[in-house]
Amino acid sequence: MNDWTQEVLGHLLEASEPSQVLEQVSAAARHLGFEQCAYGLRTFLPFTRPKTRMLSTYDARWNHRYLEAGYLQIDPTIAHGVRSAAPVIWSDQVFRRTPQMWDEARSFGLCIGWAQSVFEPDARIGMLSLARSSEPLTAAEMRAKDPWLQWLVNTAHHALMDHLGGSPLAGIEPLTRRQLEVLRWTADGKTSAEIAVILGMSKSTVNYHLRNAIARLHANNKNSAVALSARLGLLN
């Protein structure tokens, strides 16, 4: 860790509000040659209504337009970021299917950009985007700055994620070993009778563990309990 990263961490520790944290992330981004930054956190629960929260130093008019036009639903950088932890560099090719969005973003000085996601095991994904108005990102620049960009995206994520949304695991009582076992076998399609044979217990005991797991997860039934526990990384 060099003096710059220590300085950034020191400022982040002093920041108590999300806006203050973002200000320090933005200062670090400027140090790396980017004029603006944005951070978004997506929580993939509930399944039908995943939540996305965002902070940015972008022009407020663009932020308003982005939400008003529904660009959150079609943004190709987000579509990439929820699938991959590999960085993406903005380009005409990346935005080929959303040309209007791309043209409007550039009209607000968001011309050159880089974004990368960080995946949490509890159904949360954070993505940091860095942007500037000119000077394309060259391969040489990316090679030189990659270690610092990797450091910044992880540092920004861990500094901001809990400000934008607590872990879905909060408030859930930890599952017991037996509860996890029966959920894993249920996820594999086994019936309670089959699980009883596999684990050497009675069917009623299997159902007892399933009921308790459902209650701890605040789920409605065993299918939703399996889906929820899988999404939260509990079955890994």
Structure description:
This protein has 236 residues and is α+β, with helices and mostly antiparallel strands. The chain is 52% helix and 14% strand. The protein has helices at residues 3-14, 18-31, 60-68, 71-74, 76-81, 99-107, 139-164, 177-187, 192-199, 203-216, 222-231; strands at residues 36-43, 51-56, 88-89, 112-119, 124-132. The chain has a 5-stranded antiparallel beta sheet with strand order 2-1-5-4-3. Helix 2 runs antiparallel to helix 7 and helix 8 packs across helix 10. The radius of gyration is 22 Å and the shape is elongated. The model has no long low-confidence stretch (mean pLDDT 96).
Strand content: 5-15%
Level-2 CATH architecture of the largest domain: 2-Layer Sandwich
Count of separate DSSP helical elements: 11
- Could you state the CATH homologous superfamily of the largest domain? Transcription factor LuxR-like, autoinducer-binding domain
State the strand order across the main sheet. 2-1-5-4-3
Kindly give the count of domains. Answer: 2
Measure the end-to-end span.
32 Å
- Overall structural class, as computed from helix and strand content, comes to alpha+beta
Mean pLDDT: 96
Q: What's the CATH class label of the largest domain?
A: Alpha Beta
Q: SSE string, helix = H, strand = E? A: HHEEHHHEHEEHHHHH
Give the total of beta strands: 5
The largest β sheet comes out as: 5 strands, antiparallel
CATH fold description of the largest domain: Beta-Lactamase
Poorly predicted regions: none
Inertia-based shape: elongated
Radius of gyration: 22 Å
Helix coverage percent: 40-55%
GO molecular function: DNA binding
Domain HTH luxR-type: 168-233
Protein name: LuxR family transcriptional regulator
Pfam families: Autoind_bind (PF03472), GerE (PF00196)
